[in-house]
Amino acid sequence: MLQTSFLRPFAYGAALTAAWGTVLRIAQISPLYEAVPPKLYGGTERVVAWLTDALVDAGHEVTLFASAEAKTRATLHASRDQAIRLDPAPLKSDLASHMSMLHELRERMDDFDVLHFHTDMIHFPFFEQFADRTLTTLHGRLDLKDLPGVYRQWDQFPLVSISENQRKPLASANWLGTVHHGMPDTLCPFNGEPQGDYLAFLGRISPEKRVDRAITIARRVGMPLKVAAKIDAQDKAYYERAIEPLLRGADVEFIGEIGDAQKPEFLGNAAALLFPINWPEPFGIVMIEAMSCGTPVVAWRCGSVPEVIDDGVTGRIVSSEDDAVAATREVLGYDRRAVRDVFERRFTARGMAEHYVDLYRQLARGREPDRGLRLA
């Protein structure tokens, strides 16, 4: 009975395959590690917040499964009293929290036409009979040892990548499309006349983010660097050993972890953003946050960077420290309005939501996955 009821909209819901104006009942299922949107650092939950609100603005009926402090225009189903990372409780189980949320979703499956998961693969065993009603966006790196077996075992789940590059380690997985992230166009307002004569680094203090490289570049360019970054517990020793000594100087200011409220000033007043990563970045939200302000980006040729940066327009893509120094000097003269224009054309939350709705409708029509489809 449960399976028949769950499949009802696909068997009988002809309206789902009709005009674009049809209202969809969508469940957005967020990880519980951060609030939606995160209060400080956080990527996946921030995108879930932006997508959820954009879908509501487009007229769809959306229910967000997240922690209780979520700020959303959707109907909130609170699956935990607060997000896990900032919960002061000394002992807590992230696995138990997510399993409880998935159980609650199973109890309400018949309320929705589409279940959109942002929880990696933890839901696969619970929903394998109903995979054709689901969409799973993968937000992290996919070159981990144990992942190929999981995606072979549960290959019936339609997947979405957040960049074409992200797919490479799992090229044969059941990809339905690629949707680049988008953000509200009012969140980081355009700043055509930045007040700060500094370069910016925003992210995490970790070996793959290479803040050490950013410090070296800024010093060679001869400009101050402001670092707004989170330090995870596992990276504390790295910070103390490799990064803290580099911060001793008036030309580098360590601000710490910041949230959305501080980003417009921090990024908007920067002359440029340095993004000198050394890992297969799946997307890199900070690049479009800077572009929204009109701030150009100097980024390493890794992961998604060539898909996000329009080289020579919104920033420069580099492969060496010498190139980065020259590129940083070059982008100081870029037209910031042109940078913002690219953001508005390619990376808004409204555009992201439109792409996802197209994928939801493909599910409703029962289409075969298009392994080459790119929707950004």
UniProtKB/TrEMBL annotation:
Annotated Pfam families: Glyco_transf_4, Glycos_transf_1
Domain Glycosyltransferase subfamily 4-like N-terminal residues, every copy: 41-147
Segments forming domain Glycosyl transferase family: 197-327
UniProt xrefs under InterPro entries: Glyco_trans_1, Glyco_trans_4-like_N, Glycosyltransferase_grp1
Protein origin, superkingdom: Bacteria
Gene Ontology MF, one: transferase activity
Keyword flag Repeat: no
Protein name: Glycosyl transferase
